[in-house]
Write a structure and sequence with these properties.
The complex is a heterodimer. Chain A has one domain: Immunoglobulins (Immunoglobulin-like, Sandwich), CATH 2.60.40. Chain A is 0% helix and 50% strand. In chain A, strands 2, 4, 5, 6, 9, 10 and 11 form a 7-stranded mixed sheet that branches. By secondary structure, chain B is mainly β. Chain B has a single domain, classed as Immunoglobulins (Immunoglobulin-like, Sandwich). Chain B is built from no helices and 10 strands. In chain B, the strands form 2 sheets. In chain B, strands 1, 3, 4, 8, 9 and 10 form a 6-stranded mixed sheet that branches. In chain B, a hairpin with a 4-residue loop joins strand 6 and strand 7. The N and C termini of chain B lie far apart (33 Å). In chain B, 32% of the residues are buried. The chains are: A mainly beta, B mainly beta. At the A-B interface, strand 4, strand 5 and strand 10 of A face strand 3, strand 4 and strand 9 of B.
C-alpha cells in the first residue's frame, strides 16, 4: 500500500541551527501539507502546497519556515533558526485532490536543545 | 478551541463494548468533517468523514453522527477491540469551506481486557 515516508524519524539539534525535514508524498498525489504536534497536544496545521507554491499557511508558519519541492518526489520543510518551542513531531501529509482523505506520514520528531 | 495540554480526555471501555467519542466544533459554516485515529508514535490515520448535508455516515464498525444545531460530532465504534486503543481527533476546515484542517484536542480511548 502506498504511504507517505518521512526522514529523519528523530532529529536533535541545538537552538539556532537550521533543520530540514524530508517527506516523500504518495506518488500520484498533488497536494502536500505539513502539520506539527507538540508533545501531548493537538495536531496543528502549518502549510499546504500545490502546483509548486504555498496555497495556505497558518500563523505558526512564520519567516523561519519554508517549504520546497526540489524534485518530483521530495517535499521538504526547513526551519532556518530553530527555537526551543519548535520541538515537536512534524507530520507530512498528501492527498490526490484538494478534498477527501489526507494521508499522513509517521512523523519526524524534532528536539531542540 | 485551544489545546488541553498533556491531559487528554480519556475514555475507558471494556473490550466488546461500544465506544462513543464526542467532539464539539466551532465553525457553523464548516462543510466537511473528518475523524482521525492516532496510535502511539504514529501519524494520524483517516477513519471516516462526513459532509454537512448528512447527519449520519457508517463505515466498518464505525458511525459518525453530525448534529449541526449544536455543532457536535460523535464517533461510535462498535464492539471495541484492543487495536482501537488510540487518540481520536475530529477535524474541521481551517476556514469556511477551506481545504486545510484544524484538529480538535483529541480523546484517548483505552480498551480494557
Amino acid at each position: 500500500e502506498p504511504e507517505v515516508t518521512q526522514t529523519p524519524s528523530h532529529q536533535v539539534t541545538q537552538m539556532g541551527q537550521e533543520v530540514i525535514l524530508r517527506c516523500v508524498p504518495i506518488s500520484n498525489h498533488l497536494y502536500f501539507y505539513w502539520y506539527r504536534q507538540i508533545l501531548g497536544q493537538k495536531v496543528e496545521f502549518l502549510v499546504s502546497f500545490y502546483n509548486n507554491e504555498i496555497s495556505e499557511k497558518s500563523e505558526i508558519f512564520d519567516d523561519q519556515f519554508s517549504v520546497e519541492r526540489p524534485d518530483g518526489s521530495n517535499f521538504t520543510l526547513k526551519i532556518r533558526s530553530t527555537k526551543l518551542e519548535d520541538s515537536a513531531m512534524y507530520f507530512c501529509a498528501s492527498r490526490i485532490q484538494n478534498t477527501g482523505e489526507l494521508f499522513f506520514g509517521e512523523g519526524s520528531r524534532l528536539t531542540v536543545l | 478551541g485551544e489545546s488541553v495540554g498533556l491531559h487528554l480526555p480519556t475514555l475507558s471501555v471494556q473490550e466488546g463494548d461500544n465506544s462513543i467519542i464526542n467532539c464539539a466544533y466551532s465553525n457553523s459554516a464548516s462543510d466537511y468533517f473528518i475523524w482521525y485515529k492516532q496510535e502511539s508514535g504514529k501519524g494520524p490515520q483517516f477513519i471516516i468523514d462526513i459532509r454537512s448535508n448528512m447527519d449520519k455516515r457508517q463505515g466498518q464498525r464505525v458511525t459518525v453522527l453530525l448534529n449541526k444545531t449544536v455543532k457536535h460530532l460523535s464517533l461510535q465504534i462498535a464492539a471495541t477491540q484492543p487495536g482501537d486503543s488510540a487518540v481520536y481527533f475530529c477535524a474541521e476546515p481551517l476556514r469556511n469551506y477551506g481545504q486545510n484542517f484544524v484538529f480538535g484536542p483529541g480523546t484517548r480511548l483505552s480498551v480494557l481486557p
